[in-house]
Amino acid sequence: MTESFIPVGALGDGFAPDADVLEPTGDLDGASFDLELPEPVTLTVSGGVARWGGTEAPVRVTSVRDGLYLVDGVVGTGADATSATFVLDTDAGLVTVVEGGLPTAEVRAESAYDRVQRGEDPTGVTARIRHGRVAGSTAPLHAPTTELVGLRNRYTYSPNEVYEHVYLTPDLYTWHCLRGVERGLADTDRCHHVGIRDRLTLFVWREKIVPTLGLLLVDLERMKTDGKIFGNDGFDTTSVVNFPVGARAEVLNTTDHSDVWGDA
Predict the structure, then answer these.
(1) How far apart are CA 224 and CA 185, in angstroms?
(2) N or C, fewer C-beta in 10 Å, the chain?
(3) Structural domain contains residue 264
């Protein structure tokens, strides 16, 4: 059983063998989308590279459902690297953008206790989530959801890596490693839930002990997930890893919290 937390790079090494990840798709190669976000931007994807608003990054494009794409990459390198993910529904003409950053060395040196005394999150990992449309669409924007709240799910990422998630509130969840390189470890962290389609939630989490940004599309229709984990290779700020993850999902049990949090 693991006795201490490990860096994200070591976690990626553990997830890699026989990982249940989706194969990249070339569906969007050569495509261009005019996105109506708070700041309008044109997204183009070509040859495994995405370009938007003067920024470009190598990306991995996957599709957990027809017409729904995860376009994920990292902008920059080392301590300046940031995570950039587009969840693009080409059928509905909708997009959600998640931009994330890892804390500086100075922020890491602070305790969670110091941060909460100032009224800040315990974690220094940041996530900026924006919703928009593809030009011409009039569909309702993606929005926060409570569809996962109250569920206790088991995720089998590979024969070697199995976790459970307990979705406590719209802002907090507990993860627990049942099998794998983090076996026996658990924590409760900040999270965000965004409704993308019926029975499909974008779940984003921000870990506080080892700075980590995770992102999953949780499809309760296919009982499959697709996403990534972003963090530092070691216990430092000098290099980053951004590796794909995917899992088979099982709902272990459900607690009805609709009287507290309302329906999705």
Answers:
(1) 23
(2) N
(3) no
